[in-house]
Design a protein that fits this description.
The structure is a homodimer.
Chain A lengths: L2 H7 L3 H25 L4 H17 L5 H6 L7 H27 L9 H22 L1 H16 L1
Helix pairs in contact in A: 2-5, 3-5, 3-6, 3-7, 5-6, 6-7
The structure holds a DNA duplex.
DNA sequence: GGCAAAACTTACTACTTAGTAAGTTTTTTG
DNA sequence: CAAAAAACTTACTAAGTAGTAAGTTTTGCC
C-alpha cells in the first residue's frame, strides 16, 4: 500500500490521526453501550475493559492514548481535541463501573471513583508500554494486583 | 544553537538520545546513594522520589521513560539498552524503599514490593503524561491516593 | 458482461531532517 | 596576553516525508 492510497481516504496526516482516534472513540462508545445493556457484574465489566489492554500486550502493541501523549504539546488542535474526548470517554466508562461496584459491595476503595479510575487507567496504559520494554510478566502482575485491590 | 553544535558533542542522533538517557541513569544513581546515606524514613524517601515527578508536572514536561516508551520498537539498540537500564535502576530504588517501609511498619501492602513498585511507577509516569492533557489536578489526586494507599 | 464509482499506483514536487566539512568565536591555561 | 583547545556557525548534501496530479485497476451492481 502506497502513501497516496492513504491520502485518498484522509486528506492529511493530521486528518489520518484524528480519524484513528475517532475510530477508538466509536469503539469505546460501543463498549459502553454493550456494558450498559449487559446484566454483568461490575467485576465482569472491569475485566472486559482490562481485556482490551491485555490484547494490546499480546500483539506487542500499545494504547493509542499512550502513543499520542508523549507528543501532545506539538500535536495539531484537531488531534488534541479527539485525544481529550477519548480520555474523558474512557474515564467515564471506568468511573461508572467502579461506582456500580462500590454501591453493590463488589469493590472496596477509599478514594473517589474518579481517582480510582485514574489509578487503574494509568496502571494499564503505562503497564502496556512497560510490557514491550521489560516484559509481559510485569503487565501480568499489575493486572492481578489491580483486581485484588478492587476486591478489597 | 544550531544542529552542528549538537553534532560536536554527540556524533549522531542515536548517540544524543543515549547520552540523555545516560544522564538520567547518573541522576538516579546519585539519588539512590543520597537516599541510602540519609537517615530518612521510607515515607520521606518515597516523597523525595515522587517530588521528581511533581517537578516534571510543574514545568509541563514528561518522564523520559514515557517519551521513549511509545517509540521503543523502532529505537536503535544502544537506546533500548539505556532505557532498560534506567527502568531497572528506578524500579530497584523504589522497590528497596518499599521493602524498608514494609519491614518497619511504615507501609502496608499485600503484593510483593516489586509489584507495588510497578503500580507506583505506572501511576506516576502515566500521571505526568495525563497532567499535560487533562490537567494537573488529575496528577495531584493520583499522588495523594498513592501515598494514602501505602500508609494503609 | 459492462460500466461507473471506489480504491488504488506511478511519478513527481516542496519541504524537512540528519549529518558533514571548513571556517570562526569563545574559553581555558601556562 | 598569547596560543591552543573547546565550542561553536555557516553552508552545504543526501535521504526521507507529506502531499499532489494524472492515470490504472478493482469492486459492486443493474
Amino acid at each position: 500500500m502506497k502513501n497516496a492510497a492513504v491520502h485518498y481516504h484522509f486528506k492529511s496526516k493530521e486528518d489520518l490521526l484524528a480519524g484513528i482516534l475517532e475510530a477508538y472513540v466509536q469503539e469505546y462508545q460501543m463498549m459502553d453501550k454493550q456494558l450498559q445493556a449487559s446484566g454483568w457484574t461490575a467485576l465482569q465489566k472491569i475485566e472486559k475493559f482490562i481485556e482490551r489492554y491485555s490484547y494490546l500486550v499480546a500483539c506487542n502493541s500499545i494504547c493509542i492514548i499512550g502513543s499520542v501523549a508523549s507528543d501532545y504539546n506539538t500535536l495539531p488542535e484537531s488531534v488534541k481535541e479527539k485525544t481529550t474526548q477519548l480520555i474523558e470517554l474512557v474515564m467515564r466508562l471506568v468511573e461508572k463501573t467502579l461506582q456500580q461496584g462500590k454501591k453493590n459491595g463488589e469493590f472496596h476503595f477509599e478514594e473517589t471513583a474518579r481517582t480510582r479510575a485514574l489509578l487503574i487507567m494509568t496502571n494499564l496504559a503505562a503497564g502496556v508500554q512497560l510490557a514491550r520494554i521489560s516484559g509481559k510478566k510485569d503487565y501480568a502482575s499489575i493486572k492481578v494486583a489491580l483486581l485484588k485491590q478492587l476486591k478489597g
